[in-house]
Every structure is written in C-alpha cells, then in structure tokens.
Amino acid sequence: MAAVLKPVHHWPPVKVLMVAPSVRVPDTLGQTLHQLALANGLANRGIEVTLLCRCDPATLSDSSFHSNLKFSSVVNPNIPFERIIFTKYAHDKALKLLDEENFDLVHDRGYIFAGAGVKAANERGIPSILQVDDNWFRSELSATRMASLWPYSESAIRSCKRQIELASSGFTVSSILRSQISRWNRKANNFAVIQNGYEDDLFTPKVKPLGIREKLGIDNPMVIFVGALGPWHGTDELFQIAEYNPDIDVVVAGGGYGHNFPEIKNLHHIGLLSRPEVPRLLVEADIGLAPYPNMDYGFSPLKIYEYMGCKLPVVATSLPSVKEATKGHALLVNPGQMAEAISKIISNKSLLTNLSDSAFRFASKERTWSNTIDKTIDLYNSLV
Q1: What phi and psi, each to the nearest 5 degrees, are found at residue 299?
Q2: Domain for residue 68, yes or no?
C-alpha cells in the first residue's frame, strides 16, 4: 500500500537522497561510474545530492566531486564480509537520513533483494524514483545457479515486484528493459526510459595516446576491449578473436572475476587502467569490441558510448538492447561471430572511417551524461 505523500519543502526538488547500497566508491565497475556520473551531474545542476553507498567518506577527495554532492556510508567497504551486510543496513540508514534532513525526493538504485530507498521513502511519505539499470533476475541467473531454484527464484521475483510497487515513479535504461520488468509489475509500463551517457569531456579523440602500441611492440591492426571481465561481457569471445586473427592484436584492459587468459601471442591483457588512461588507450585502437552473451539484460552499454566518444568504430553483439542503444551507428554481429566479422572489415579503411564518424556524431549528440541528467531532472519534475 502506497503511503500518503507529505508536502515537499521544495519543488522542483533541490535535495535528493540517492540510495545505492550496491555501489562501492571508489571502484572501476560500470555501476559505480554510472552512479557517480549521475549524482555528480545532478549536483552540478544545483541539486543537493547525498549518495548512500559503500564508502569511507573520509577517504574521498572533495576535489573530485561537486560541492553539492555528499557521501554517506552504508557500511565501511573494508570490513570483512561487507557484501553480506550492506543490504541489511541500507534501509535503517536511509530512514535515519530522512529523519535528520529535509529531503525532497528519494532516488533508489534498485537491485535484486533490495528496495531500501523506496521502502524508506514510502514509510516517511516522501516521493521516490526507482532506477532500474538491468534485468536483475537475469543478471542473478548468470551469477548463481541458485537463482533458478525455488524458493530462491520466487523470492527474487517477489522482491522485484515489490520495489516497483513502492516507487512513486521510475526509469529504466532501455525500452527493452521496461518491457521485461513490466512482466513483474505492470506499473513499470509507465516508467520513463533514460539511456546512460558518457563523459564527453574525458572521452574525446583529442586526448594524447597512451603509448601502448610502442610498449607492446604492436605494428598490426589493434582491436580493444575495456571493462570488467565478468560473465555478462562475453569475454571468452575475445580469445576466439585472437586465435582466428593472428595478424590482429587484441588488447584487453580490465580485471576481476578470476578470469584466466590463455597463452596467445597476439592477446594482451594489460590489467586495470586509471579512468583518465582509458580514453588515451582507446584512441590508439582500430576497433572497439563489445561482445555479449546471448542473453539480453536490457542494459545501456557505457563502454560502447565511450568507444564512440573517442571516435572508435564499434563492433558489438546484436542484441535488442544494443540495437536500441546504438541506433545503426555500430556494426552488430550475431553471438559467436565476432572473430570472423573482424577479419572481414579490419582492412576496409573506408568502412571503418564511416563507422567512426557516424558513431562520434551520434554519441556526442544523443549519449552524453548531459542528456541523461536533463531527462532525469525532467522525471523528478514530473512528480509534482
């Protein structure tokens, strides 16, 4: 049952509690980069944002973020077993913050077995927005076999339904995702669609190259993948690309999830890079790779927008969400066919130039964080 909303102190909202207990700061995962860009972007527009996440506020550099953005910790990220307990404490911490300060709105980054923000907002009679970044249940299926077993699966779906029900409104990052989660709760049919964006001041073709070609002694064409080496990124296909194309160097920047790399002469795993180093690496490449497994999570791919922002031609797996995200400005191939596709196009300079020009124009116009922030504020304002 939805609570009766109390009159807000300011509208449009000027003070927002952003609840994201699954986000760890600092971190290089996409969910962290996404949430920080969103929170800092809103702060830049004059909204006071308190981000409730897994962090140690004392260690965060004030100079990295706008003065309107503050951090509150669900739990210290360095204590043992913090992943087990961060969800448990998020609801109580959200209630405490709502009681201490006059927030106009709660913005909750949802995930499976969560909903601390929308629940606390409902209990205090404050409007709330539910942010849905991917199909939580499908993501859970890829992470653990337990997700397919009853009663785990039933509890998971019930959690998803409940979060949507408690929210005043919400948004998904693709229309594909909105359609998927509407099967949990038809209320989601009314959610907005707000695609992710990229930092166009950082990801630009004008940056100084990192020098990775010289460091690794690469003279051949170079294709690149940047991101977490998780099962949702289809990184095994990178090995196939290297094996199938011995005259093309495959450079992989990223880490995590215990991924073992085979010994292939033209496959180079360079590990994690700092955020400013990533665009400097991208501008040296000939193609940006975005392989995904044959399961659509309804996502909005940050890495693709960052490739495009650096004027890099993109080859990605053809999934409905990727089609929606790229709108014809990337070369899409069926799952498992990327290695052959790369071999056919790598020497076609005219095609690659057309792809890079088209991708850059599209991304710089439609996929920046500025656009995302505009649409998020419009959604906030729609609750009045």
Answers
A1: -85, 175
A2: yes
The one-letter code for the residue type at 20 is: A
- What integer pLDDT is reported at residue 8 of this predicted model? 47
Tell me how long the chain is.
Answer: 384
Spatial neighbors of 282 by CB under 8 A, at least 6 apart, are: 203, 224, 226, 288, 306, 307, 310, 312
**Domain match, 190 and 55 both:** yes
Residue 149, both tokens: 């077993």
Give the number of other CB atoms < 10 A from CB of residue 32.
19
Across the beta sheet with 249-253, what order do the strands follow? 267-271, 249-253, 222-226, 287-290, 314-317, 331-333
Query: CA 21, 24, 28, 34 torsion: positive or negative?
Result: positive
CA distance 331 to 344: 12
**CA–CA separation, 188 vs 270, rounded Å?**
41
Cβ-Cβ contacts under 8 Å for 349 (sequence gap 6 or more): none
**Could you report the per-residue pLDDT of 242-253, keeping only the tens digit for each?**
999 999 999 999
Which pairing describes strands 192-193 and 222-226: parallel, antiparallel, or unpaired?
Answer: unpaired
Could you give the 3-state DSSP secondary structure of residue 368?
Answer: strand
**């795993």: which residue's tokens?**
269
72-103 pLDDT, tens digit each: 998 765 665 555 566 778 999 999 999 999 99
Q: Tell me the C-alpha distance between 166 and 4, whole Å.
A: 12
- In this prediction, residue 230 carries a pLDDT of 73
The alpha carbon dihedral of 302, 179, 114, 10 has a sign of positive
Paired residues of 333 in beta bridges: 317
Residue 356 confidence (pLDDT) above 50: yes
**DSSP state letter for 65:** S
**Structural domain that includes position 255:** 212-366
Residue 349 lies in a domain: yes
Residue that has been written with the tokens 């989601």 in this structure: 188
Residue 206 gets which letter from DSSP?
Answer: T
Q: In terms of domains, do 254 and 179 share one?
A: no
Question: What is the DSSP track for 202-219?
Answer: TS-TTSPP--HHHHHT--
End-to-end CA distance of the chain: 20
Claim to verify: residue 103 and residue 40 sit in the same structural domain? yes
**What are residue 131's DSSP bridge partners?**
109, 171
Pairing type for strands 69-73 and 169-172 reads unpaired
Dist. CA 203–CA 273, nearest whole Å: 14
